[in-house]
Amino acid sequence: MPVHDRELRRWARAEARRLDLGPPSFKCSSSFLIRLKKELCISSRKVVSVVSKKRMTEEENLEQKAKEHVEAVNMKFPTYDTVMNADQSGFLYEFTSTRTLSTVGEKITRVVAECLNKTTHSYTIMPIITAAGRLLSPLFICLQEVTGDEFGPFVKEAVERSKQLRCHRTYQQE
Question: Of 18, 22, 62, 146, which is most buried by a Cβ count within 10 Å?
Answer without folding.
Answer: 22
